[in-house]
């Protein structure tokens, strides 16, 4: 799917939110500036979150509670060693009651389970190409 601008990325994220179920793990892959956080912002808006959504680059994780559901947005770009995830209690976040989005999952050093959904965002000049592959009940796009 081709994404023309930021608003289109937000719209796709909002539509994607309708397919989410608690307990899901979603990986987001793409270069810096590809639109990973913008996509998650659209998802959170689609779930009903009205507050700000910032990149968790420096905190590693930003927690949200939306209509009683826990959503965690991880950005592992600055992770030095995958074992840091163990120290921060990553397993506590990955449970049947939450939805987790992970940017830069390759930085986890294999400590994360397989995702339910993989979202790849490729940059093509002024557009983005969004590829969604799923292991569990999400429409492929």
Describe the structure.
The protein is of the alpha/beta class and about 140 residues long. It has one domain: 3-Layer(aba) Sandwich (Rossmann fold). The chain contains 4 helices and 7 strands; from the N terminus they run βαβαββααβββ.
Précis, in short:
This protein is α/β, with parallel strands linked by helices and 141 residues long. It is 23% helix and 30% strand. The protein is built from 4 helices and 7 strands.
Distance between the termini: 6 Å
Number of strands: 7
Helix content: 10-25%
Shape: globular
Q: What is the third-level CATH name, the topology?
A: Rossmann fold
Count of DSSP-assigned helices: 4
Regions with little confidence, pLDDT below 50 for 5+ residues: none
Please identify, by name, the CATH architecture: 3-Layer(aba) Sandwich
Q: How many structurally independent domains? A: 1
The CATH homologous superfamily is called P-loop containing nucleotide triphosphate hydrolases
Structural classification: alpha/beta
Mean pLDDT: 91
The CATH class is Alpha Beta
Elements, N to C (H/E): EHEHEEHHEEE
Give the strand line-up of the largest sheet. 1-7-6-2-5-4-3
Percentage beta strand = 25-35%
Write the layout of secondary structure elements.
Elements: E1 2-3, H1 6-17, E2 25-29, H2 36-47, E3 61-66, E4 69-75, H3 83-87, H4 90-93, E5 98-103, E6 117-124, E7 127-134
Parallel strand pairs: 2-5, 2-6, 4-5
Antiparallel strand pairs: 1-7, 3-4, 6-7
Helix pairs in contact: 1-2
